[in-house]
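FAQ: What does a multi-protein file look like?

Like this. Sequence, then tokens, then the next protein.
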Amino acid sequence: MKGPSSDCHLCPRLVTYRSDNRLAHPDWHNAPVASFGPSDARLLVVGMAPGVKGANRTGRPFTGDHAGLLLYQSLLKFGLADGAYAADPDDGLRLIGCRVTNAVRCVPPANLPKPNEIAACNPFLTNEIRSMPYLKVIFALGTLAHDAVLRACGMRRSSFKFQHGKLHQLPDGLHLANSYHVSRYNTSTRRLTTEMFEAVMFAIAQRLAR
């Protein structure tokens, strides 16, 4: 499953930011973050982009910052992961029937990619989806990821509106599940609670069991 090279130059702003981080933190990953989990998974979780002190530092999606806590704890609870999440890529956590990626593979300044950067990275998401032969459900965390998935599947954003807790049935047989992003802001303000997120996970687990 081919993704961007470690020195991808598609997005000049992200290249500059990556170079600055490499100078400031040479021991960090500071490169496009590869997907995590088996390619024969039936569930693909899609986030927004790596966090500067999270995946950009550790090299594994949703690992090393607050965003990974709720996500990986929920995957463990619903049998989609094995082991223990310790916010470290060497924690031994293993995903089962699940794969995790981001709509944009490089860390953006202020944790917010621009539209042209999302578009530039979208072919990698398209390739990801097409290369997963048993894929059944795509779980988009946030509006940006939702829109990126639709674009990767060749559909317009107006076709399916983002709605937390919604499970959309796409024309190609895939299902697209929506949740607010598992960011610190959303969980600390209780826009997204553990109960809310686990309710979506439960619906996904039911769909995967069919």
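And here is the next protein:
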Amino acid sequence: MATRLSSGRQRGGDEDPDALDVLLDGDIDRVMAGLDRIVEAAPSYRRLISRWENQGWSSEAFDFSRDAEEWNDEAIWTAEQKRFMTWSLSEFFLGEERVTTELLPFAIAAPTDDQRIFLASQIADEARHCVFFDRFYREVIGSDAETIAANLAAQRKHVNEDWKLLFDGILHDCAETLRKDPSDIDALVRGVTVYMIVIEGTLALTGARFILRSLKEMDRLPGFQDGFTHVNRDESRHVGFGIRFLADAIKDDERHKRTIEETLAETLPVGTLAFSPEWVEDRYDFETPFGYHSSEIFDYAARSLQKKLAAMGIEPSADAAA
């Protein structure tokens, strides 16, 4: 297994220098398909940093005028569709603020300069994502909050208790442990697993894929589609970092496999419900108002996670694959 991982890193460094080019694509389906290529290539930290420099964008660049017209047109959206979108996007909006706030201890605790520099760039990404959602809520949803903090507080009523346990509980505890002892490599492995593998790699990217696919098929919210695709290109790069970091950690010490497996077993059941609406009768088995079933979401997320684990050198356990 160590040989396979080493070979993958060699491909990322020499044989597949263009693996990250998919992150410049504007089509979310191609970005998601290309994430598998990034996972397999295991690009170096320096290459990930370089892609950040070449992938910059502004949250002010998107035109929300048509989005606002559509959102306020009762002939376009059903009440249930708007309810689902408001709940889902609020979880993304508040999630972006939480990960922005909690990432600093990760950057301080990272063992190498390359890792610290990448994580510093990621903090800037997450802050920009939060500003993007703040602008969308003001210009499209109709929020009249005077500050980002007030806007976040106003949307907090939409997130469910499992979301709070994942972000305010598990993720916050990881950050606090690292803040108190930045030398705790086990805590950093746990935190990266929670952050980049579960929250970003398994939950957020999966949820975003289905949202963007639906909006594209219906030809709705073009400004949001464009901006949210940019957000998820960033997230894909972050996931690439997490996979590389954890593969390197396992190579240094095989015991980190157990930490990752235990973290997944604890976090995935919470994460599944965090991105499942509380008002449905069965939160594991429901139809969305956009025509896709929860089983499609869960199956996609499970397959995506299995590929990431394989790239790290971990055979998916029953808990991780569920």
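Q: Is there any per-entry metadata?
A: Some entries carry free-text notes. For the entry above: Residues 147 and 267 are 32 Å apart (CA to CA).
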